[in-house]
């Protein structure tokens, strides 16, 4: 690998064989030297989970013959992949970490459930400029073609400008043809939530069990949100921080009778 | 259950049989009608993971004979427990959700890995005043006695005052005798990170594997942080938000060449 080209770590949460990570690798190979360290199986909904009571396996694999990049398949979560990449596999701290392209939205409150974004956040806590990319199409046959120019533009600008301290990017791309996408919007996270609906069934031996399902409810009318941008044909970019302190709440709490 | 007493949901991430949740249930029984819905096995480090590709079991259990509260043991993550409690088990939205008492710290950046805090955050997204409690003692034999009066005071104030919209509390308690604890401090999350050290070993059939371990590095000298408070004998209370937007970064990103 060249010493002059940027070193780029690629990971995801849909697993190393997902079409989304293949599209991301293809774009990143045009920008720098690429190292892929990704879960060996799908890890959707894993949030910022880490493996602390089990062993981790991490193996060099060869998905594509004569590829310019290297790949490792890891038994852990997306966050585990970033940790093991940075500490055991990469010879130096990468210049960029990209995660995705996720099959499905990570906009709004979905950011807190997202393994894709947690991988980006983990790299961010280690001082690495990081971006999570998601396409609003859950299908394994999703067309990642229209995403590529936006992924490239945002990654290039991140490599050029860096990111503010303590900030990573949450990028969501609408499921549209290239000609239908209106551009890129910097947004805030919409104030939305999930209303759960559990599907209760009975197993063959008579024991009740549940499937988690639910409905996404957007309570936010703002035109500066990621939900608005995506509904209106824009790629949404939300700067995400991992200092979770609600500074605005501190005065109120200081007035409580706790002293 | 009475209609006048507050309805309190109790969960955790160390599992329904952990001593920490027993201490929390004991305190909550003095404040309201208690429903426990907690994981059937330890879920530490699960972050905001949810179970989307597997079934969930949730069974009424009787841990203590003639207890005033009810308990359900759930096969999922802490976040699953909150979702199933609110949507399938409780007859109305609870007045308070408490999670813990965790065996070990969830201060500073640990908040993003914490199943204890993710359960509280999940309840928060559903509009329920919520608190995660953690004691800085990983031992299963930890003494939760000194924690109880602080847990009770903070829960009482939360029931009385409510919490600002979009905010939950992250409470950490130092491992000290009751007489050594100086009081409660409202804090910001310290700017700290983990430096990983993987322990590489070889299994009996010759395959390499890793154990994740690491060192907590606090880069923050501030005396207004949770880390400072805990080191100086205070119970730390950090208001935590789940709007992760880094508003301060939006101007800078708007200056990028993306349009």
What does the model show?
Chains A, B: Residues 8-196 form the Survival protein SurE-like phosphatase/nucleotidase domain. The structure is a homodimer of 259-residue chains. Chain A is an alpha/beta fold and 259 residues long. Chain A has one domain (7-195, 222-254): Survival protein SurE-like phosphatase/nucleotidase (Stationary-phase Survival Protein Sure Homolog, Chain: A, 3-Layer(aba) Sandwich), CATH 3.40.1210.10. Chain A has helices spanning 19-28, 78-89, 115-125, 148-161, 226-231, 250-254, and strands spanning 7-11, 33-39, 58-61, 70-74, 96-103, 130-135, 167-173, 183-186, 192-202, 208-218, 234-241. In chain A, the strands form two sheets. In chain A, strands 3-4-2-1-5-6-7-11-8 form a nine-stranded mixed β-sheet. In chain A, helix 2 (78-89) packs parallel to helix 3. Chain A is globular. The interface between A and B is large, with 83 and 83 residues.
- What are the low-pLDDT stretches of chain A, counting only 5+ consecutive residues below 50? none
Q: Approximately how much beta-strand content do the residues of chain A carry?
A: 25-35%
What's the gyration radius of chain A in Å?
Answer: 19 Å
Q: How helix-rich are the residues of chain A, as a percent range?
A: 10-25%
Q: Which class do the helix and strand fractions of chain A yield? A: alpha/beta
Specify the oligomeric state: homodimer
User: CATH fold name of chain A, please?
Assistant: Stationary-phase Survival Protein Sure Homolog, Chain: A
For the terminal residues of chain A, how far apart are their CA atoms? Answer: 59 Å
Q: Calculate the mean pLDDT score of chain A and round it.
A: 93
């Amino acid at each position: 690998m060249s010493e002059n080209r940027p070193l780029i770590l690629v990971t995801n949460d849909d697993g190393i064989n997902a079409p989304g990570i293949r599209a991301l690798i293809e774009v990143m190979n045009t920008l720098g030297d690429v190292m892929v360290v990704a879960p060996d199986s799908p890890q959707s909904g894993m949030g910022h989970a880490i493996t602390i009571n089990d062993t981790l396996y991490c193996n060099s694999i060869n998905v594509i013959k004569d590829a310019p990049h290297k790949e490792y398949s890891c038994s852990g979560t997306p966050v585990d992949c970033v940790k093991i990449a940075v500490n055991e596999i990469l010879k130096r701290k990468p210049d960029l970490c990209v995660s995705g392209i996720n099959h499905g939205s990570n906009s709004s409150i979905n950011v807190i459930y997202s393994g894709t974004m947690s991988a980006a956040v983990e790299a961010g806590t280690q001082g690495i400029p990081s971006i999570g990319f998601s396409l609003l199409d859950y299908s394994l046959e999703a067309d990642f073609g229209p995403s590529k120019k936006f992924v490239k533009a945002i990654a290039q600008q991140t490599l050029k400008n860096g990111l503010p301290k303590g900030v990573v990017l949450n990028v969501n791309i609408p499921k549209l043809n290239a000609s239908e996408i209106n551009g890129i919007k910097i947004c805030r996270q919409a104030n939305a939530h999930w209303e759960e609906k559990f599907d209760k069934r009975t197993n063959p031996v008579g024991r009740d069990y549940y499937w988690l399902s639910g409905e996404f409810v957007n309570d936010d009318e703002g035109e500066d949100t990621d939900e608005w941008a995506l509904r209106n044909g824009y790629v949404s970019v939300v700067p995400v921080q991992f200092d979770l302190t609600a500074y605005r709440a501190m005065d109120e709490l200081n007035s409580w009778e706790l002293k």
